[in-house]
């Protein structure tokens, strides 16, 4: 009715609030602060005239739980430096894009210890404490889901949850012995180097799902942990949208110490197809050379040997060289071959880098990769039937797709191996009584060409 306070959509400000001054059938005229708007009654929402100036800490208390009402409440709290808000048992976090160390120190942890959910201000520590108390009191394992779009701050929230669980269930250990929770946190730089990338909204976005199991004994003490990863965004290895970047490790290796760059026959990242599809190569807030050193140091901490580190980066370099192999028409119909001497150089280099000697459990293993065999695997496809084996030549486009498929699967297998290695270093307790799982599911992006996580086009995949 005339005089009512409502919310109406606006192309610039998303939602505007105002007073209804005229009604014409299905349309209403609303007088807002800066202008008068005509809108359909079906697309307008009532506004609570008694809405508190600083908002409410639990949105179930709102008179109207609709989109403009929720956004208004979050904005009011954000303006008052309150970045956390409840909706019942769900905690909503708004990324402040700055460090707020006073919110997460030991005194804050002590304050939330044993407090009922909703008794104190909304906080990740309250969610973690609730999960821990229910696990102890009811004897049932718990899980915490951290979800949101890219750049929302999910990974940081996950770290805060784990810090609190370590505070509640951490063991007292000698100064020389690292605790389980310390090992989990120490593994982050390695996982971030190989599983994180710069996206439109976030310079360090996790491009994989991570489920961290914190295992507890009968007394509620942490006895082990395991990291389960899944849905690595493999398509990013071969396809990067501007202004994003590929995985950090590629740029780190190109900015490594001189002897490593020469050993892996690398150079400027802009010379590699898998990196130069985007104009974003360097990041102001990230020094790739320093990050390379820090990643090598983190690998030492989690027990990855020098020989294994060399093999890891040989694979990373081989993938970059593989991406520079181009194809042209071969002598046979629908056949293909490396386009020129430059492509043959990268093919040969990739094959050489894939050859490595790796000691596992004191047993030396030699992995061989023949240049000719690698070329045939890219330019030909083999079909095995019950009676015979059929080899089909691939045209240049199909060969390029075969090249990208190989790069994606090799990188995915490398990432899986790293996670398994980290789990061995952390130590799992297969006899644990309970566990609290923290699921950090990565945020999705919108691209001009959307593909599923394995790289196929979404409509066909669905």
UniProtKB/TrEMBL annotation:
Gene3D superfamilies registered for this protein in UniProt: 1.10.10.820, Kinesin motor domain, Myosin VI head, motor domain, U50 subdomain
Coiled-coil zones: none
Keywords: Actin-binding, ATP-binding, Calmodulin-binding, Motor protein, Myosin, Nucleotide-binding
Alphabetical list of Pfam families matching this protein: Myosin_head, Myosin_N
Protein family per UniProt: Belongs to the TRAFAC class myosin-kinesin ATPase superfamily. Myosin family.
Domain Myosin N-terminal SH3-like intervals: 1-49
InterPro entries the record matches: Kinesin_motor_dom_sf, Myosin_head_motor_dom-like, P-loop_NTPase, SH3_Myosin
GO BP annotations, alphabetical order: actin filament organization; actin filament-based movement
Protein name, UniProt field: Myosin motor domain-containing protein
Keyword Cytoplasm: no
The Myosin motor domain, residue ranges: 54-462
Presence of keyword Repeat: no
Record SMART domains: MYSc
Highest taxon listed in the record's lineage: Eukaryota
Residues annotated as binding ATP: 148-155
GO MF, any single term: actin filament binding
Any single GO CC term annotated in Swiss-Prot or TrEMBL for this entry: membrane
PROSITE patterns tied to this protein: MYOSIN_MOTOR (PS51456), SH3_LIKE (PS51844)
């Amino acid at each position: 009715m005339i005089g009512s306070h409502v919310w109406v959509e606006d192309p610039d400000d998303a939602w505007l609030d105002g007073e209804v001054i005229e009604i014409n059938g299905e349309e209403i005229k609303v007088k807002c602060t800066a202008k008068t708007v005509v809108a359909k009654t079906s697309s307008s929402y009532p506004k609570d005239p008694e809405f508190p100036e600083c908002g409410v800490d639990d949105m179930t208390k709102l008179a109207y739980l609709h989109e403009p009402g929720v956004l208004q409440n979050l904005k009011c709290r954000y303006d008052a430096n309150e970045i956390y808000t409840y909706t019942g048992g769900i905690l909503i976090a708004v990324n402040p894009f700055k460090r707020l160390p006073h919110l997460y120190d030991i005194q804050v942890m002590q304050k939330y210890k044993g407090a009922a959910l909703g008794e104190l201000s909304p906080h990740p520590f309250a969610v973690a404490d609730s999960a821990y108390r229910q696990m102890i009191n009811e004897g049932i394992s718990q899980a915490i889901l951290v979800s949101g779009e890219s750049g929302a701050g999910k990974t940081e929230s996950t770290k805060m949850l784990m810090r609190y669980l370590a505070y509640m269930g951490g063991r007292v250990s000698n100064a020389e012995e690292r605790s389980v929770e310390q090992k989990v946190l120490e593994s982050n730089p390695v996982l971030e180097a190989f599983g994180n990338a710069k996206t439109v909204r976030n310079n360090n976005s996790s491009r994989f799902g991570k489920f961290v199991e914190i295992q507890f004994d009968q007394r509620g003490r942490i006895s082990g942990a395991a990291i389960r990863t899944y849905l690595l965004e493999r398509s990013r290895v071969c396809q990067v949208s501007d202004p994003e970047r590929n995985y950090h490790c590629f740029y780190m290796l190109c900015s490594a110490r001189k002897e490593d760059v020469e050993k892996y026959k690398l150079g400027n990242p802009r010379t590699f197809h898998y990196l130069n599809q985007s104009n974003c190569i360097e990041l102001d807030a990230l020094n790739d050379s320093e990050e390379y050193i820090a990643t090598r140091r983190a690998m030492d901490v989690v027990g990855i040997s020098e020989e294994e580190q060399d093999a890891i980066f040989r694979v990373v370099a081989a993938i970059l060289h593989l991406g520079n192999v181009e194809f042209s028409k071969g002598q046979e119909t629908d056949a293909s071959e490396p386009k020129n001497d430059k492509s043959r150089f990268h093919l040969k280099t990739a094959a050489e880098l894939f050859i490595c000697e790796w000691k596992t459990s004191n047993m030396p293993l030699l992995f061989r990769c023949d240049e000719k065999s690698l070329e045939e695997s890219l330019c030909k496809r083999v079909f095995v039937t019950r009676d015979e084996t059929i080899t089909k030549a691939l045209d240049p486009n199909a060969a390029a797709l075969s090249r990208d498929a190989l790069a994606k699967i090799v990188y995915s297998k490398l990432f899986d191996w790293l996670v398994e290695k980290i789990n061995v270093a952390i130590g799992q307790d297969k006899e644990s009584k309970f566990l609290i799982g923290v699921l950090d599911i990565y945020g999705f992006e919108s691209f001009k060409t959307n593909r599923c996580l394995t790289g196929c086009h979404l409509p066909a995949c669905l």
